[in-house]
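Okay, can you check this protein?
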Amino acid sequence: MTNVNTIKCAYIINQIINSTNPHIKGVGFHFPLLGLHELTRQYFSLPNEIKFLAGPQIVESIKNHISKSKITSYVNDGIIIDKNIKEFSVNLSFIKEIGSELSLQRLHNTLYSEDFFKGIIRTLKKLLKDENYDLKMCYKLFDELLLLLIEYLFIRGHSKESLYAKFNNITSQNQKNSYDAAIKILDHLMTIGTKPLSSMEKLDVKIIINKQKSFSNYRFLHSFIERHLTDLFKENRISKYVKSDTYFNTEYHFIIYKIDKEYVDKTLTKFLEAYNLLKHRFDFPENHLILYLENKVFTVPNLKEDSKIKVKYFERFLLECNFIDLSDMMNLEILKALEWTSFPEKTTDKKYAFMSLWSIMEFLLIDSVDDNKIDTICKNFIPYMSRNYSAT
């Protein structure tokens, strides 16, 4: 193996390890296509009414990301020959020039495609093996392709912690041969990135809700839980849940697929943290909901908040809410509102308190993306401050 190959292998190993380092936020290094998965997801999750206002800004952000990418030029030069990457490149060109709904949908589908994921790994292996490519060009391509590769795995559910540990283990066992280490890392990524989630180890989960006489309206709580579980099922992260009712309890049984240990913990923690926001809002008793993982109680630390912002009709709205029927955007906004309106009563963190208040005001008062955000909030909030008299 030549010195050029060694340098390329060392570079790609370093970038992969940095991108999965759990102590570094984000992916650990920056390049043009960072966040493209999330931008396309956001665009297609917007309700039509919101897309009319916010959609053009997201499209411009996507175009701005694409305009800095070098993938298109390298495909045109014949450096990249994998058909999936070439189709991706053609689509990038269409979006940069036109930005049509169809081209955006194709981009979104490609980014979440297993065939595209495989194409990235094949291309990386080709660049590592071939000695004829310029090093600077390889570095740029490595960065862009690795970002797409790692973001695909993160979205699939793989955790930084498990990936980072595995990559370090591979490199420590192949210290004398960086090419072998790089290829083994890519082979491992191919294996875990294409393994069906439903074929992974299955863990039993049970959620028990104790029916309390002091709280009779359980419809909204059931819809909240069922919406959360339905979304996980649609993503093929859990099995279909089974619901059973007795006089004292309501139980939900399902299987969660063990992508890795951290994924299971984070998924169940995220659910309990969302539930705890409702628990805090309605003062549910401590044993109101119990979650079992493999017949052992799974818990998260209780919220530190001992107070909550009173928003008129918010509790009534929640009690009458059917989360199953909500759009993804509306469901997310309600969870945000729950989080924003919970705060420590005796906190000395004025910045935290102000950010919570400002986030609520943005959520409630911004009705246009064309005007200055601060001016819009002031214009819409002043009449409320003056008890609905017109602002002067």
Q: What stands out?
A: The radius of gyration is 25 Å. The chain is about 60% helix and 10% strand. The first helix runs from residue 3 to 19. Residues 177 and 346 are 57 Å apart (CA to CA).
